[in-house]
């Protein structure tokens, strides 16, 4: 073990090998946030339920993730980082198997809850392992591996899910996790180390007495569950016209408003709010929230737009995302090398935001008759800026932060990224309905007698709707470009030294 890195999880092994091992299960977990989405119709048909009922397969996984993420740092400290990571991998793998053999929807939903609980702790613990196992100079390259899981996995999830479902069955969407999870478990046992410093810190905490923050835990469970349910069901239940949405929104607001105040004064908080006093961490967390919005919402928009308005089948629509995933991986490698040699990494973040904003603006000017290759290049341009944001942000967020806070800081950072994704989806879906309705009415107001002669009532309505829908998609891309630009000042808040 490098004596300069007493918290390293590498032990006597190469830290790069440990980084790869830690990324395997995380990649599969993040992949599972989107991989099942294309299989829902098949799941509903095979189990004899409606499509809306099958949506709980996605919702329950996201709710379980939201529950475990805020407390994953505390659990890693209490159980030991390696022990907690292996428990998470084992539970995720077992739950994946249970999902693959589920005979009923109730069984599948319960298994997805267990899968979400197991998978929720993987990304923050991997981030903590990378922070502690690499020097500040090498962290940008190490976080390139983390970026592959965070950015590439959700991008290729629909493509992988579609391939497995069409070639085999929906069961393989979950079954594929089992051998990979078992491999990850074996490699973790032999290659990931629990450094003596972390062991001694855990023993010291036990001697001093670990007080469980029951009130904080209750606020987290109720608050984040209600928030995730509200966001995930917002469009399906007609927004604030639904009593369910109003109640869950109020519960989330009350719990999550009181949570920071309670945690601030608790001697052993389960969620360390005081970390936000660290300027780099607070800045990085906001940018991680933005990454969640940009990545998840645009990943959902593109295949939906190409299938609905351009006539692509699911496979061709997935290829546009797959090409973007390849571009992200290449950009990750290049960005990791550049960031490790650059003293002013915050300017990379600034460049990444500008590239993302320009590419989103470019998308807002597309037309329905764009050819496949032009669309792929537009997607490539859109995603190559994301590693420029993620890698420096992940590295700078932990700069100057106390080493024993890495578990909790990683959990909060991952939580905000996931929340950004959930809020992004709910916002985009709501915007889509609003803008489609607005453009449909405006187009109808400008119809002439000549227009009505050329179409039947049905085809005229379909033509107007299709045009209004396309205009709504372009509006959303333009709005996302503005969102990226509004965060331009944040990279300047990073402290590069100290």
In short:
With 498 residues, the chain is mainly α. 77% of the residues lie in helices and 0% in strands.
Structure write-up:
The chain has 498 residues and is mostly helical. Helices cover 77% and strands 0% of the residues. It is built from 21 helices and no strands. It starts with 14 loop residues before the first helix and ends in a 12-residue tail after the last helix.
List keywords for this structure.
single chain, 77% helix, 498 residues
Average pLDDT, rounded to a whole number, is 79
Summing up helix and strand content along with how strands pair, one would put the structural category as mainly alpha
| Head-to-tail CA distance between termini | 24 Å
Tally of helical runs:
21
Low-confidence stretches: none
- Main pleated sheet: none
The beta-strand count equals: 0
H-E order: HHHHHHHHHHHHHHHHHHHHH
Query: Helix coverage percent of residues?
Result: over 70%
Describe the protein's topology:
Elements: H1 15-31, H2 40-47, H3 51-54, H4 56-79, H5 81-100, H6 105-120, H7 122-133, H8 139-167, H9 171-175, H10 177-191, H11 196-208, H12 214-233, H13 243-265, H14 279-309, H15 314-341, H16 346-363, H17 372-383, H18 386-397, H19 406-445, H20 449-454, H21 457-486
């Amino acid at each position: 073990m490098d004596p300069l890195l007493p918290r390293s999880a590498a032990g006597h092994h190469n830290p790069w090998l440990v980084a790869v091992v830690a990324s395997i299960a995380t990649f599969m977990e993040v992949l599972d946030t989107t991989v099942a989405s294309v299989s829902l119709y098949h799941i509903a048909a095979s189990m004899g339920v409606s499509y809306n009922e099958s949506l709980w397969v996605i919702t329950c996984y996201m709710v379980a993730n939201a529950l475990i993420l805020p407390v994953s740092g505390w659990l890693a400290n209490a159980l030991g980082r390696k022990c907690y990571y292996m428990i998470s991998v084992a539970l995720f793998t077992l739950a994946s198997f249970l999902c693959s053999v589920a005979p009923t929807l109730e069984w599948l939903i319960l298994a997805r809850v267990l899968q979400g609980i197991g998978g929720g702790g993987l990304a923050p613990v991997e981030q903590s392992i990378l922070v502690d196992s690499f020097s500040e100079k090498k962290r940008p390259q190490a976080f390139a591996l983390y970026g592959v899981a965070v950015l590439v996995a959700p991008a290729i999830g629909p493509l992988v899910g579609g391939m497995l479902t069409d070639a085999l069955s929906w069961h393989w969407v979950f079954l594929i996790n089992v051998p990979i999870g078992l491999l990850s478990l074996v490699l973790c046992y032999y290659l990931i180390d629990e450094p003596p410093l972390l062991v001694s810190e855990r023993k010291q905490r036990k001697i001093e007495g670990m007080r469980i923050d029951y009130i904080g835990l209750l606020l987290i469970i109720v608050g984040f569950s209600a928030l995730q349910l509200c966001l995930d069901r917002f469009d399906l239940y007609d927004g604030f016209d639904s009593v369910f949405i109003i109640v869950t929104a109020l519960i989330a607001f009350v719990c999550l408003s009181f949570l920071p105040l309670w945690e601030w004064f608790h001697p052993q908080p389960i969620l360390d709010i005081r970390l936000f006093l660290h300027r780099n961490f607070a800045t990085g967390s906001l940018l991680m929230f933005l990454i969640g919005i940009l990545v998840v919402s645009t990943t959902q928009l593109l295949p939906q737009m190409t299938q609905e308005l351009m006539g692509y089948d699911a496979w061709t629509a997935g290829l546009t995302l797959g090409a973007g995933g390849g571009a992200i991986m290449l950009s990750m490698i290049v960005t990791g090398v550049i960031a490790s040699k650059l003293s002013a990494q915050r300017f990379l973040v600034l460049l990444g935001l500008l590239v993302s904003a320009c590419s989103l603006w470019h998308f807002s000017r597309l037309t329905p008759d764009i050819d496949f290759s032009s669309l792929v290049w537009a997607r490539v341009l859109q995603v190559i800026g994301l590693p420029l944001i993620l890698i420096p942000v992940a590295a700078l967020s932990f700069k100057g932060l106390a080493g024993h806070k890495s578990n909790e800081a990683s959990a909060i950072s991952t939580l905000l990224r996931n929340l950004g994704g959930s809020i992004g989806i709910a916002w985009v879906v709501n915007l889509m309905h609003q803008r489609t309705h607005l453009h449909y009415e405006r187009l109808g107001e400008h119809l002439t007698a000549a227009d009505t002669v050329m179409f039947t009532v049905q085809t005229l309505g379909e033509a107007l709707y299709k045009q209004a829908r396309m205009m709504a998609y372009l509006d959303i891309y333009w709005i996302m470009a503005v969102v990226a630009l509004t965060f331009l000042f944040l990279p300047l808040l990073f402290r590069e030294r100290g």
